[in-house]
Amino acid sequence: MNDRDPEFATKAVAIIELLLSPPTDGPLFCVDEKPGIGVREPTAPDQPPVPRQRPATPRPARREFEYVRHGTVDLLAGFRVKDGQVCGMVRLQHRSREFCELLALLDEQAPVGQPIHLILDPVSSHWSAEVQAWLAAHAHRTFVFHFLPVHASWLSFIEVWFSTLSRKCLHGASFADPTIATQEIEAFIRTYNLHMAHPYEWKKGVRFYKRLKAKIAARQELPLAA
After folding, report:
1. How high is the pLDDT of residue 224?
2. DSSP string of 73-142?
């Protein structure tokens, strides 16, 4: 994307350094939504694979390409940077109301008295009046929002986890209704936390990070050179 934000480099570096050195006063979560998860079902049952029978070659399993749509569901989730545990919930929408539900869920994951740091997109559902009112009504917990630059969702670890969800749970899945889709996604989250959760190491975009640092340094030197 075109760099239309003059502070893009500064904001991106701040997020990357936050991931490299997470806060010590409370947990850090990368939060986002995965909207529009298709709930669809093939119009005919799958055909199982046929084993090899000489001289014929084996035939892989087959799936009908036509399907029936049963709507969509949205996943709201937070990836805990320290250990890779995922806290998520499935809803039919992802408005401010659902985001507040996720905040309440994250509130249960942290020890009392600790602030919760969130890396998230600067979309309106994350800072609306409804969200501000919810935060004011739950003053027992401090939520610190670290907003990503526009068009920089890829900096967040939750996007990496969404890729894992797509490959290991959603790819080729068949859901007869939203309730089944919800159960399958939530079951995958529990299985992932139990057997696969691990902290991510920042590697992607190291050169990009260095270029941003150089860009910031060059801008700081411009007034001196003038």
Report:
1. 38
2. EEEEEEEETTT--EEEEEES--SHHHHHHHHHHHHTTS-TT--EEEEE---GGGTSHHHHHHHHHTTTS-
pLDDT: is 52 or 200 the higher one? 200
In whole angstroms, give the CA distance from residue 150 to residue 79: 20
Asked if residue 199 has pLDDT above 50, the reply is yes
Confidence tier at 37 by pLDDT (50, 70, 90): very high
How far apart CA 120 and CA 126 sit, in angstroms, is 8
Contact 178, 71 (CB under 8 A): yes
Q: Is the peptide bond before 111 cis (omega within 30 degrees of 0)?
A: no
- pTM, rounded to two decimals: 0.85
